[in-house]
Amino acid sequence: MNWIITAAIMIFIVNGFRIATQYQRAVIFRLGKVQGLRGPGLYWIIPLIEWQKTIDIRTVTTSVAQQETITKDNVPVQVTVVIWYSIKNPIKSVVEVVDVGSSVVQVALTSMRNIIGRHTLDDVLKEQERLGIDMRAMIDHATDPWGVKVERVEMRNVEIPESMQRAMAQEAEALREKRARIIKAEAELEASLKLREAAGLIMENPAGLELRRMQMITEVGAEQNTTTIIMMPSEFVSMAGAVSEWARKSAGK
After folding, report:
1. What are the tens digits of pLDDT across the range 1-57?
2. Nearest residue to 217 (alpha-carbon basis) of 204, 207, 227, 203
3. Are residues 99 and 141 in contact, defined by beta-carbon separation less than 8 angstroms?
4. CATH 3.30.479.30 in the chain, residues?
5. Domain spanning 60-160: CATH superfamily
6. Model-level pTM?
7. What residues contact residue 160 under an 8 Å CB cut-off, 6+ apart?
């Protein structure tokens, strides 16, 4: 009889031992009331009177399924959000909310719609990092009573309607053409200014014009051309004009 009692006591004691790994914490309940945390390592609970809920305190990555929402300028967009969070207070995560993972996702959906609804399409496309920071703060504030810490939020795969994509492509093309025309006009203006400076230098030193003519003849001769261009000095042209005028007047007499 004694050995039966001893065996029963041993079984009772052995059944109370539990082990929690380094990344786990056990929330202990005694007759429905929270008694505290156990773990990591080996610990003991009272069988039949106490039971536990094991919580993983590692960082959890959750991808919120692609959702369609409306921007401030009434453009429908489809956005995928990725959330990194961890449980900092296991007792609150068990007592304050039924399913902490599902609740975080639902808060993220609501926060995403609120954040995107406050910004235009350009902001959503260009300021995704800043919007992710704002979204993280909003989700973290809502989940703090559950003992959850939201560490990071990223917006991924922002999709817009095809008609809007075509309009944005046309706008980008128009901007590129505008920049190209401005650059070309600036280049022509700079070239004109340089030509004016060169003309001023030549007027100050007419011999420079003759040197330029000789340089042009050298450049033309360097190419494999069958035609040779001979540029006459301006003095020869002026002299020929004067002789022609004198001959015309002499003939008239």
Report:
1. 678 888 888 888 888 899 999 999 999 999 989 999 998 999 999 988 999 999 999
2. 227
3. no
4. 60-160
5. Band 7 domain (3.30.479.30)
6. 0.63
7. 75, 76, 77, 78, 121, 125, 168
